[in-house]
Amino acid sequence: MKAIVHVTLKNGVLDPQGKAIEHALDGLGFDGVGEVRQGKVIELELDASDRDAARTQVTDMCEKLLANTVIEDYSIDFTD
Amino acid sequence: MKAIVHVTLKNGVLDPQGKAIEHALDGLGFDGVGEVRQGKVIELELDASDRDAARTQVTDMCEKLLANTVIEDYSIDFTD
């Protein structure tokens, strides 16, 4: 099973990478682009077969390592 | 409309960040974790209302700025 974790900055937290992309797109002549935010996506191959157990495990990974929960939100999806 | 762009390393391209996460998870005692890959997710607010036109525009952004197509793949999704 594969877990896909999205880690994004919480609303209100400054995102300099997103701002840099926004300005670069503007410089390249792309119109109509509003706010840009950049986050991370982490794909994990898991041996687990039980999805509920896997969700508990991956949530634990997010809390301990993958996300800084002071400034970041995370979401977890699974594919087989 | 919001465009969500996933940028991931192509298969076979070395991913040191993913490897670092893999080792850190192992060090924290998480079992059954196979390969870990890390990518980027970029969320763009767009003024466009036509999804086909937006897809063309965002594809152009990916080719010119958001992804290094030599070593990275990208995929584009939309939410309203």
Overview of this protein structure:
Two copies of one chain form a homodimer. Chain A is an alpha+beta fold and 80 residues long. Chain A has one domain: Mth169, Chain: A, CATH 3.30.1280. Helix content of chain A is 35%, strand content 38%. Chain A is built from two helices and three strands, in the order E-H-E-H-E. Chain A has helices spanning 16-27, 51-66, and strands spanning 2-9, 33-46, 72-79. Chain A has a three-stranded antiparallel beta sheet with strand order 2-1-3. The longest helix of chain A has 16 residues, at 51-66. The model of chain A has no long low-confidence stretch (mean pLDDT 96). The A-B interface holds A 6, 8, 18, 21, 24-25, 28, 30-48, 57, 60-61, 64-66 and B 6, 8, 18, 21, 24-25, 28, 30-48, 57, 60-61, 64-66.
Please tag this protein with its features.
homodimer; about 80 residues; alpha+beta; Mth169, Chain: A; three-stranded antiparallel β-sheet; 3 strands; about 40% strand
Question: What letter string, H or E per element, gives the SSE order of chain A?
Answer: EHEHE
Query: Superfamily at the CATH H level of chain A?
Result: Phosphoribosylformylglycinamidine synthase subunit PurS
Total beta-strand segments of chain A: 3
CATH class of chain A: Alpha Beta
Radius of gyration of chain A: 16 Å
Summed over residues and divided by their number, the pLDDT of chain A gives a mean of: 96
> What do we call the CATH topology of chain A?
Mth169, Chain: A
**Whole-number count of domains of chain A:** 1
Described by its quaternary structure, the protein is: homodimer
